[in-house]
Amino acid sequence: MNALYSLLAVLLLVLAGFAGGSTGAGRGILTFIVPYAAFAILLAGFCARILRWAWTPVPFHIPTTCGQQKSLPWIKPASVDNPSTRGAVLVRMAMEILLFRSLFRNNRARLAGKRLTLSENRYLWLGALAFHWSLLLIVLRHLRLFIEPIPAWVDGLERLDSFFQLGAPQLYLSDIVVLGALAYLLLRRFRDPAVRFISLFTDYFALFLLLGIAVSGVLMRYFVRVDILGIKQFALSLAAFHPLGPNMPSPLFFTHLVLVCALAAYFPFSKLMHMGGVFLSPTRNLANDSRRRRHINPWNHPVTKHTYAEWENEFRDKLVGAGIPLEGEDAGNAHTN
Amino acid sequence: MQETLIQIEPKPPRGDWRDPHVEFRKGSMCYSAAPKNLTYLGLPNPRVWQPTDSDWKLPPDWKKTILAGMKERLDKFRSFRLFMDVCVRCGACADKCHFYLGTADPKNMPVARAELIRSVYRRYFTLSGRIFGSLAGGRELTEDVIKEWYYYFYQCTQCRRCSVFCPYGIDTAEITLLGRELLTLIGCNINWVMEPVANCYRTGNHLGIQPHGFKDSIDFAADEASEITGLKIEMPINRKGAEILFVMPSADYFATPHYYTLLGYMMLFHEIGLDYTVSAYASEGGNFGSFASHELMKRLNAKIYDEAKRLGVKWILGGECGHMWRVLHQYMDTMNGPADFLEVPVSPVTGTVFENARSTRMVHICEFTADLIHHGKLRLDRGRNDHWNVTYHDSCNPARGMGLLEEPRYILNHVARRFHEMPENTIREQTFCCGSGAGLGTDENLEIRLRGGFPRANAVKYVKEKYGVNLLTCICAIDKATLPTLLEYWVPGVEVGGVHELVGNALVMTGEKERTTDLRGEALATESVLASGESEARHA
Description:
The structure holds 2 protein chains of 2 kinds. Chain A has a two-stranded antiparallel ribbon with strand order 1-2. By secondary structure, chain A is mainly alpha-helical. The radius of gyration of chain A is 29 Å and the shape is elongated. Chain A has 14 helices and 2 strands; from the N terminus they run H-H-H-H-E-E-H-H-H-H-H-H-H-H-H-H. By secondary structure, chain B is mainly α. In chain B, helix 1 (35-41) packs across helix 10 (191-202) and helix 16 packs across helix 18 (406-415). Chains A and B meet through helix 2, strand 1, strand 2, helix 9 and helix 10 of A and helix 2, helix 3, helix 5, helix 8 and helix 11 of B.
């Protein structure tokens, strides 16, 4: 049901883009208002969420340690998976953010008869990594539309992406990979009963939306001729805060635009904020040095305690009977240091 | 017990997780906290009730209390707010939870456990949830949801295995603990947590043993250690001016097989002439407060530093215990420090400065002993453990909340000749929980414990069948209390022991009499056992 609703929601957006792109008034709104509104929401919302997290204190030092601690000098510590210095934390975070270290550990538990077997399972890691990296590449490639002259590194990325020089226009690897990875992530949600069980509207919505964007983009590049120069002019004018309508408006382009704007506006209110959140996770971004260095809790409230004096008063007779020294009465027992 | 009692059927989850209905039945729930315990601790809503009652006698404004409590914690814990926001429901955590693997109950997937509270967070604390409600994954907070929280937050041992695999490090232990805090606000606690907390608070230890009883237990153990060795072994209590305060979980002096570990400590300290004391006031290292709320954790933990200060010791040594070490390692200094009245720990025998405990000034016994062995300060006869074929269970908290992995292995390899690791996905940071931690180790909850302990037991079975392992060692009091039952059910023939029990067996003490039995009173292996048995295969 969640999947169906979210598919319908994305189809509605597609329709809105198509319809809007086909009428003059719609084109006006889609050209002059929607992109700025969406981008403003993205920027403000993203910053607000990040600041909200950043301003919330980290009262306790709770890294998840995934290897040997640094303790005795002759025991080799797992300096990345159980970092003891800030530098090592940076490496751990880089591994997490760039290579999805934790997901790489993933394994699959299977019950066969009375035996539980654990086997390696890197598909999710591979799918997620492929999706995120190809998406990044695609976003960076789009800079060619917003910057003139096109920076050399954007050209370089493009050449890398079309390395195999197949077809005309040349095939981007990232287009294939992003579609494949999204399809895998979506199919996985449908086919794995456990994942299907926990999937919400928002989980499918994000995937359908991204698929919609990728498909409309691919259609424009390889299948339906659009006026790329007009689009570039439009993009440049957007970036210059002086928007001109695209010369040869194509409803497909507006569909792509609407979906991208929807993603941008939706981003700060959704789970997609994991992009910013992953940097702030206290189980990953703290060094395991809580016995070496005191971690300060800004709201460390006092608590009621049961003091030694109260305890001694309550059990005085029993302490005396058992010959346990009382406070101040144990001079004879004390060792001198 | 019969083999047919528990059938684990991996069945595809059905229905909608947002339906909060839970069926409470014996074997898969914990009883409610007795009112006297809540009253003693000054906690809200003490009353007589049970989870099976239809009316839980919640306070009239319970909903307001819970939502205000959530708000407060969202503003105080970045972990809580972040973990509520960033989960993408990728499902990597799902089959990492021993309770999910053992029950096949989909709400035991860590992601689903968190969603139980996350759905309420969305509904009341996010814009999209307030507007779109269930479409945005939101859920109304009803009494049924509270009952569901009670069931599932007390069906998590806070072992953090899921957190190892989560791409954002979402820590279910954090969510469960905060969920239990919220339940505490309206008096929905379990007795197996609250009675120990009340006991620890009053007497100093979780069984409520009063000081004279504590002394009897310690003296009894000292007598037994003396008898085994022929030496005069003592364990001083509340002795001011000692160099070191030793804190252990109270089960060590009141339960088996913990007791043999206590004998091991005593013998070790005697042999190296350690200037130390234990305390009757701070006679519990295990922190049951950490199973209910950060506040109770702090109230109980405070005793350790207070007592160290009163006794005037230089530093603190801690025994074998799991959740205890999570608190000592990650919370104590922050909550109750700074320990500026103590000194940076230095081993009086080897002179090693424990740099890693420079601020907290508390050292783990395995760090301490590994250092002794490394410097050749102990004479060890590994042959005295030849009747044991040993494997090592990484206790969750020292593994994932600390990283104490090699020290116990180093010790074991120096005190025993036969040592075999369990499969790599079930040890170290990927270790499987005993299924009874975080206050769930009570007998009314036995079915869930056995189910939750199944993945651990399965790995033990593997090394038993492959290498003939007959002893599972560990460094956690809850492990020692609950794994014997678990193994008796799933892997009969494997015993449970502590690392320092084996140290005590192997330790050759100055002036001791010849040993014919181990600390359990069982006959030592004759030479031929090893010769005819396997070679010294060891996987360090």
